[in-house]
Amino acid sequence: MKYLDEYRDGRVAARIVHEIRRATTRPWTLMEVCGGQTHSIVKHGVDRLLPPELELVHGPGCPVCVTPLEQIDKAHAIARLPGVIFTSFGDMLRVPGSRTDLLRLRSEGADVRIVYAPLDAVRIAQDNPAREVVFFAIGFETTAPANALAVTRARTLGLRNFTLLVSHVLVPPAIAAVLQSPGNRVQAFLGPGHVCTVMGVREYEALARHYRVPVVVTGFEPVDLLDGVLRAVRQLEAGEARVENQYSRVVARAGNPAAQRLMWSAFEVCDRKWRGIGTIPKSGLRLRGELRDHDAERRFEVATLETLEPAECISGQILRGLRKPHECPAFGERCTPATPLGATMVSAEGACAAYYAYGRHRAAVAP
Amino acid sequence: MCLAVPGKVLDVYEDRGLRMGRADFGGTVRKVCLEHLPEAGVGDYVLVHVGFALSKVDPEEAERTYRFLAELGQLDELEAPPEP
Hints:
The structure holds two protein chains of two kinds. Helices cover 38% and strands 19% of the residues of chain A. Chain A has helices spanning 10-23, 35-44, 63-66, 69-80, 102-107, 118-127, 144-156, 171-180, 193-199, 202-211, 222-238, 257-266, 296-299, 315-319, 351-357; strands at 28-34, 54-61, 84-88, 111-114, 132-139, 162-169, 188-192, 215-218, 243-245, 267-274, 278-287. The longest helix of chain A is centred in the middle third of the chain and has 17 residues, at 222-238. Chain B has a five-stranded antiparallel beta sheet with strand order 3-2-1-4-5, with no helix packed on it. Chain B is elongated, with a radius of gyration of 18 Å.
C-alpha cells in the first residue's frame, strides 16, 4: 500500500541503523509513548536492531490498557440491562472486568455489537428508536474527534436514545506523569504520531522546554521508528531538547484545527483515573454541559464496585517505563493474554501482550 | 487503538449535512467522514482512523522524508558500508 510499504523497506532501515550506531556514544533511555508504536517495535524487532547503549521503554499510550477496571465493570452492568444495545470498538470486547467480558455477556444474550466507526453506532440508534444505544467512547486525542462527531450528530438528529460511556484520556499529562515519577529513567520521547495529526505539536514543545527533554513526533512503520530514534539520539548527544516532526507527511504543526474544534465542542478536560497508574489531574475528557443528557453514566444508575488489582502485577511501573514485561515473575506464567492480571496484558497494544505475542516469554530471549 | 491508515479518496458526497466519501485502502473500500478535512478531494490520500479522516498525506513531504532516509550515509559509504 502506498505510504506504508516504502516505510518497511529493510535496506533503508539498515542505513538508519548504521547512522544510529555512529551517532550513539553513551547509554540513553528512550520511551515510545503510543501503544501502536510499542506493538510495531516488538513485532518488527526494531529494539533488537539498536546498539546496546540504547534502551526503548514502553509508554502509557494504550487507551484500552489504561481504562480502569471500574469503568469496564460499569460497561458490563449497562450492557446487561434489558433494552440496551451496547456498542464498542472490537478491542474492548475481550478485556476482562472483575467478573466477565463483553464477549461472554453477548454469548449470554446481551446485545453487544462491534462497530468500526462511532458513526455506525449512531446509525444503530436511528434504526432502533425503541432501544437505548450506548457507545463505549474510549481513546486518546486521535479518537476524540470521531467520538465527538457521533454524539453531536446524534444530538442534531434528535436521537435521545444514544449515549456515550466516556473514558477518554490525554497524552501530554501522561508524559508529564512519567517525567515526574520518582526513579524516572526516560531521557527522550518518540511522540505519538496520530495524536499529533489532530492536536499538532505545540503541547509537546511546552513539555520539551519545561522538562528539557527531546520529543520526536514519530510514525508507526519500522523506518519511521528508526528515524525517530536517530533524531532523538542526535539531540541527546548534542545536549538539545526540542520537538522534531519525523511524521511530517501527515502531521502539521497546528494539527487539524477543524477536528480540534469538533472535539472541544463535545468534550471538556477532567481528572481521570488510569489503570495501573492512578488518577492524573486534567488527564481526560468528559462530555460538556449541554451534551450531558447523552452521558451513559447519568442515564443508567449502575452501582460501581471499587476493585483492587492483583498486588503481583507491575503494570503501573511498566506504563511509566520503570520496568519491562519480562521482569515480572507472573509474565507468561500466571499472566497471559487469555488470563491477564493487569493493564499491559489486556490489549494487543499493551507492552506485556506485545512481548507475549512475539515470543519474548523468557528473559533469555528478551532484549 | 490509534491505528490510522492512508487511503485514496474515490468520491465525495453529502449525507444530510455531513461531507462523506469512499476511500480505497489497498483494495478495501470504506466509507469515510471528510467533514473535518475540507481540503481533501478525489484522488488525495487521507489518513483515516475509525472512519474519520484526520489529515491529508502530503505527497511532497512523504517523498522528501523517504528520499532523505534512502540516501542516508550514501556519501560515506566508500569508507564504511552499512552493516547488514
